[in-house]
Design a protein that fits this description.
Blueprint: E1 2-3, E2 10-11, E3 18-19, H1 23-32, E4 39-40, E5 70-75, E6 80-83, E7 86-90, E8 93-95, E9 101-108, E10 115-121, E11 127-132, E12 138-144, E13 150-153, E14 156-160, E15 163-167, E16 170-177, E17 184-190, E18 195-203, E19 206-210, E20 218-223, E21 239-244, E22 250-256, H2 272-280, E23 285-287, H3 292-301, E24 305-307, E25 312-313, E26 322-323, H4 326-331, E27 345-346, E28 354-355, E29 358-362, E30 369-375, E31 380-385, E32 388-389, E33 400-401, E34 403-409, E35 411-413, E36 422-424, E37 428-436, E38 439-447, E39 455-458, E40 465-466, E41 471-477, E42 481-485, E43 490-491
Parallel strand pairs: 1-15, 5-11, 12-18, 20-23, 21-41, 23-24, 27-40, 34-41
Antiparallel strand pairs: 2-3, 4-11, 5-8, 6-7, 6-9, 9-10, 12-15, 13-14, 13-16, 16-17, 18-19, 20-22, 21-22, 25-26, 28-38, 29-30, 29-42, 30-31, 31-32, 31-33, 34-37, 35-36, 37-38, 38-39, 42-43
Length: 496
C-alpha cells in the first residue's frame, strides 16, 4: 500500500511556524509509534527533561522535597494519564503536589499515538504541561465498478483503481475519471485513524462516488398498513421508496445496499413499479407473492428475486408477521449482478435560498399523513405519521433520513383489475423536491425507459447532489400538495 505524503503542514513546537512534513519523516514517526509534537508551560519554560540551574536545592539524606501543583493538558482533551505506573484520570488533570524529582508520564488517547516520557518536578514551584498528541494517519481506499477508472488524491494522480493510501487526517479531495464518463469529485473530512472505503459506480453518463460498497445490496417490500407498524430495519436501508398501493394504503421498497440488517419486516407482496425501481439499482428483490403485473415485471427485467423463502413468522397477527434479514436473502441468491446506487449522486450540495426545516404531505387516507422534521443537531430529518414520531420496533430509535426526495408521478387505476391496483408512469419525467441539510431545491426527475436509471436534476439542469447518507423517496400522485416548513407550499405537476 502506498503512503501518500500529507498536505497540511505541521507546527514547529519551538517557533510556531509551519513546516512541511516530508514522507520519510512521516514514515519514521509512524515507525517509532510515538511523536512529541509540542510542549508549552506557564511561567518559566520547563521541558520534559531534567530541570537544572540555580535555585533548585539539593536534598540531604532522608529529606524529600515537595513540588508545587502540577497541571496536565492535552490536545485532544480526555487522554488517560498514567504517572509512575499509576492511572490518575483523564486530561485536563490537576495534581495538588508531587514529590520533587523525576516522574514517568504516559498519555494515551484513542486514535492518537501514545506519549511516553519523563517530567522533572521542581521543588516548591508550579508545573504546567500542555502536550499535543500526534494523530494517527487515516486510510483511504478507492475501488471501482467502472473499468479503467483513474484516481486523483489532493490533485495528485495516484493511479488506476483500486488504490489504497495512508494519509494525514484532515480535508481530502478525491477525483475519479474514466473514459466515456463525466469525472467526479468529492471532499472528505478524514478523522485520525479513520478508514474510508469509497466505491466508484456508474450513474447514467456519469461516475458516482459512494462511501460504501453497494454491490451486494438487496431490496425488500415492506408492509405499511397501520397494524404493521412499527416496522423493523428501515434505518439500515440506504434508500426507501414509499408509494401507494390499492386500497388507499402505502407500501415501502427498502434497498439495503451497504449495510446488513438482521431483522427486516414485515415483508409483503410486490407490485410492478417496485420491481422497476429495484431494477434501477440491480438489487435482487425479496417479497412474499406479487400482483400479476409484479410477476410480469420480474420476468421482463430478469431481476433476481426471492419469493416466499428466507423468512420466518412471529407472533404478530398475520399477514403482518413475516420477517427476513439481508443475510437470509443473500443466501438464497444463485447468480446476480453487482447492485449500485442507480441514478442517485452524492457530493457536497450547497445551501439554497429555500429554507425547509421539514415537510408534510398526505397520501389521502387518514393513517397516511407523512411528516419530516429537521434535527439541526443531528443533521437528519425525523419521520412522523399523523404527527407521531415513527420508531424502529426493535431499537426504539426514530426513523430518520439524510435526504428526502419527493417525486410527483402520474398514477391511475389499472383497467379491469378487480383489486383496484394502481399504475405509475415511471418513464418520461416530472417535478421533484429535494430536502437536504435544512434547505430545499426544486428540480426534475428523468427516465428515458425502464432500461435506464432515473436521473435527478436541479433547476439549472445539473445533476442533483445528495448528502452522503440514507435517502427516502416519497412518490406521490401528480398534483398532490406538499407543505414545507420554513418555505413555500408545493403542488407538483404531472409527468411529461
Amino acid at each position: 500500500m502506498d503512503t501518500i505524503p500529507p498536505h497540511p503542514p505541521t507546527e514547529d513546537p519551538a517557533s510556531g511556524s509551519a513546516l512541511p512534513l516530508s514522507p520519510w519523516v512521516l514514515g519514521a514517526l509512524i515507525a517509532l509509534g510515538v511523536v512529541a509534537i509540542g510542549i508549552s508551560c506557564t511561567g518559566a519554560p520547563v521541558s520534559l527533561g531534567t530541570v537544572t540551574g540555580p535555585g533548585i536545592p539539593v536534598p540531604g539524606p532522608g529529606v524529600t522535597l515537595v513540588g508545587g501543583p502540577v497541571s496536565i493538558e492535552t490536545v485532544p482533551a480526555g487522554a488517560t494519564v498514567v504517572l509512575d505506573d499509576k492511572p490518575l484520570g483523564a486530561t485536563p488533570l490537576s495534581i495538588p503536589s508531587l514529590p520533587a524529582g523525576t516522574h514517568r508520564l504516559r498519555l494515551t488517547a484513542a486514535n492518537y499515538f501514545d506519549w511516553d516520557g519523563e517530567v522533572e518536578v521542581p521543588p516548591g514551584a508550579p508545573l504546567a504541561q500542555r502536550i499535543l498528541l500526534p494523530p494517527k494517519p487515516g486510510e483511504i481506499e478507492v475501488k471501482s465498478l467502472v473499468s479503467g477508472a483513474r484516481i486523483w488524491l489532493d490533485g495528485a494522480d495516484v493511479g488506476p483503481a483500486p488504490v489504497g493510501a495512508m494519509v494525514e487526517a484532515g480535508e481530502r479531495t478525491i477525483r475519479v475519471e474514466a473514459e466515456g464518463y463525466d469525472g467526479w469529485e468529492v471532499r472528505l473530512a478524514l478523522q485520525p485513524n479513520e478508514r474510508r472505503a469509497l466505491y466508484v459506480v456508474p450513474s447514467g453518463p456519469s461516475l458516482n462516488l459512494v462511501h460504501e460498497d453497494p454491490s451486494a445490496g438487496v431490496a425488500v417490500t415492506i408492509d405499511n398498513q397501520k397494524d404493521a407498524r412499527p416496522q423493523t430495519g428501515l434505518n439500515a436501508a440506504d434508500v426507501v421508496y414509499e408509494a401507494l398501493v390499492e386500497g388507499g394504503i402505502t407500501r415501502y421498497l427498502a434497498l439495503f445496499l451497504t449495510r446488513p440488517a438482521d431483522v427486516i419486516g414485515p415483508v409483503r407482496s410486490a407490485r410492478h413499479y417496485f420491481v422497476n425501481w429495484a431494477a434501477e439499482y440491480r438489487a435482487p428483490l425479496m417479497h412474499i407473492g406479487a400482483s400479476p403485473q409484479g410477476y410480469g415485471a420480474l420476468a421482463a427485467t430478469r431481476l433476481p428475486h426471492v419469493d416466499s423463502r428466507a423468512f420466518y413468522r412471529t407472533r404478530r397477527p398475520a399477514p403482518h408477521n413475516a420477517y427476513t434479514s439481508t443475510a437470509a436473502v443473500q443466501s438464497e441468491l444463485r447468480t446476480r449482478d453487482a447492485s449500485s446506487f442507480g441514478g442517485l449522486r452524492f457530493g457536497n450540495p450547497e445551501p439554497t435560498d429555500l429554507a425547509a426545516t421539514g415537510l408534510r404531505l398526505s397520501y389521502g387516507a387518514r393513517d397516511y399523513n407523512v411528516g419530516w422534521a429537521y434535527d439541526t443537531g443531528k443533521g437528519v430529518y425525523e419521520r412522523s405519521i399523523n404527527g407521531e414520531v415513527v420508531v424502529d420496533a426493535d431499537s426504539g430509535e426514530p426513523i430518520t433520513a439524510t435526504n428526502i426526495l419527493v417525486l410527483w408521478m402520474d398514477s391511475w387505476p389499472l383497467e379491469d383489475d378487480e383489486a383496484g391496483r394502481l399504475d405509475f408512469r415511471q418513464t418520461g419525467g416530472g417535478q421533484l423536491l429535494a430536502l437536504r441539510h435544512g434547505f430545499a431545491t426544486d428540480g426534475r426527475w428523468l427516465r428515458g425507459s425502464l432500461r435506464n436509471v432515473t436521473e435527478y436534476r436541479d433547476q439549472q439542469g445539473q445533476p442533483l447532489l445528495l448528502t452522503p447518507g440514507n435517502t427516502w423517496i416519497q412518490v406521490i400522485p401528480s398534483g398532490t400538495r406538499v407543505d414545507l416548513f420554513g418555505g413555500d407550499d408545493h403542488a407538483g405537476g404531472g409527468t411529461s
